[in-house]
Amino acid sequence: MCRFMSDKALDNIRFPHSHLLGTEGLTPDVISLLLDRSESYVEQNRQADKKKSVLHGRTIINLFFEDSTRTRTSFELAGKRLGGDVLNMSVATSSVKKGETLIDTAMTLNAMHPDVLVVRHNDSGAVKLLSEKVNCAVINAGDGRHEHPTQALLDALTIRRRKGHLDGLLVAICGDIAHSRVARSNIHLLNTMGARVRLIAPKTLIPSAIDRLGVEVFHDMNEGLKDCDIVMMLRLQTERMHGGFFPSVREYFHFFGLDYEKLANAKPDALIMHPGPMNRGVEIASEVADDIGRSAIREQVEMGVAVRMACLELLTANLPTSGGAKP
After folding, report:
1. Of these residues, 23, 71, 105, 316, which one is catalytic?
2. Percentage helix, strand, coil, to 5, in the chain?
3. 148 catalytic residue (yes or no)
4. C-alpha to C-alpha distance for 300 and 326, rounded to whole angstroms
5. Catalytic one among 58, 120, 145, 160?
6. Burial class of residue 74, CB neighbours in 10 A (0-12, 13-18, 19+)
């Protein structure tokens, strides 16, 4: 079993950053702090009374420029379970659609004195830019192809709860690496925590020079999955693809979709993961995705709420309590 710090011990440790924009640059101690605090919320979320007043009086705005179900809903649930006031801003009907710039939007929201902005944007770097213009904490809920830090944290929490540790594990990330912010955040986090990372994908879906991030690259599933402890499948992000990246969905599944035949190359107790939403029969066979003994896909969704509660709590703990904006 993994060891983590008690609530009392955690209360004496502060998160050292004003924002959570990515996993790149986070130290092992900071990642462990986030995971340990998340761990403390898992059991609470399984109780009849799931609410705390940690964020009483605090305001969280979910600002999503891209569609999302799991991430936005879990952030909303996380904020409400901690007693915060949560506003979901619909960009589709906002002034952004009328031509307002991102900076103007930031200034408008800043005038409302929120405590946390949770932002998803289709452009890499947009969330960092926004964080430089507001007086509140900002959490990156996914920016373009760049990062999605809370997804990597919930993946790490899921793995740690199942395997007891991250150090020394062999993790295969398979599929659309080129368009995946989830892959990038996981690469940074897993490498920092001492895991080994393999990327498996067609050559057309592997970014150039990705090996500089300290990963091994494979173009054959059977070879890449050999002796892996974790098999993390990724969604084909066809909405970001312009041009032909693979001949057909049928052929893609034949060579790179996870089925039991390919999975047999991994360790017998290899954990199966997918950040969702899944395209069954494209990235993963239904029987593999629904394998009760080996699939952690549903558990990932549960861990997402706990992780986002931890992030909201730790970031707001650094905010002033006087009610005024930060200088």
Report:
1. 71
2. 40, 15, 45
3. yes
4. 34
5. 120
6. buried
Catalytic residue chosen out of the listed positions 50, 52, 70, 196 = 70
Q: What tokens does 25 get?
A: 């640059």
Residue 14 bears catalytic tag: no
List the catalytic residue out of 8, 98, 203, 242.
98
Question: Has 98 been annotated as catalytic?
Answer: yes
pLDDT in tens, 111-140: 999 999 999 998 999 999 999 999 999 999
Q: Is the dihedral of CA 21, 23, 25, 28 positive or negative?
A: positive
Instruction: Measure Cα distances from 31 to 57, 61, 87, 307 in Å.
Output: 27, 24, 28, 11
Rounded to an integer, what distance in angstroms lies between the CA atom of residue 173 and that of residue 29? 24
Question: 289-312: string of b/e by CB count within 10 Å (b at 16+)?
Answer: beeeebbbbebbbbbbbbbbbbbb
Q: Is 226 noted as a catalytic residue in this protein? A: no
**Of the ranges 32-46, 231-245, 302-316, which one carries the lowest mean pLDDT score?**
231-245
pTM, whole model, 2 decimals? 0.92
